[in-house]
Design brief:
Layout lengths: L15 E6 L14 H14 L2 E8 L3 E6 L1 H6 L6 E5 L3 E7 L5 E7 L2 E7 L2 H15 L1
Antiparallel strand pairs: 1-2, 1-7, 2-3, 3-4, 5-6, 6-7
């Protein structure tokens, strides 16, 4: 994920709202050594360590763009105003269940990028198609 100097116009329905899971705060893929109740407590603690930020996002011909909300930029000092992921680096896209909104998981060469949005299935299909077109 890199910073972008410009705010692109998205194709399709344009910029949309999402909550982006900040890279480095996702604890889902860390293996657990606990069992029983300990495993449940550990899973809850991991979820509490995640940081989701409000964004606008757009799928453009060569990358997936996120513009972080000013409120989150003010709360989380050092957070860049814009982030992007090159679509040519995307290896797969899938949806995950969420509360009220779905989660789009974008697998790429350096890990997984997750964001919550409405109509997650349609968004995942759009990102996957754009990634195929970018290769």
């Amino acid at each position: 994920m890199t910073r972008s100097a410009d705010a692109p116009e998205g194709r399709g329905s344009g910029r949309r709202l999402a909550n982006l899971l900040l890279p480095g705060t996702d604890r889902r893929d860390v293996p657990s050594t606990a069992t029983g109740v300990g495993r449940t407590v550990e899973r809850w603690r991991r979820r509490r360590a995640e940081i989701w930020v409000g964004t606008r996002f757009a799928v453009v011909p060569d990358h997936l763009w996120f513009g972080v909300s000013r409120a989150d930029q003010a709360l989380l000092r050092g957070l860049p105003g814009e982030m992007m992921l090159a679509l040519r680096d995307v290896t797969s896209v899938e949806t995950e269940p969420g509360v009220l909104t779905g989660i789009v998981a974008v697998h790429h060469e350096r890990g997984v990028l997750r964001f919550r949005c409405w109509r997650a299935g349609a968004v995942a299909a759009e990102v996957a198609a754009a990634a195929r077109d970018a290769r």
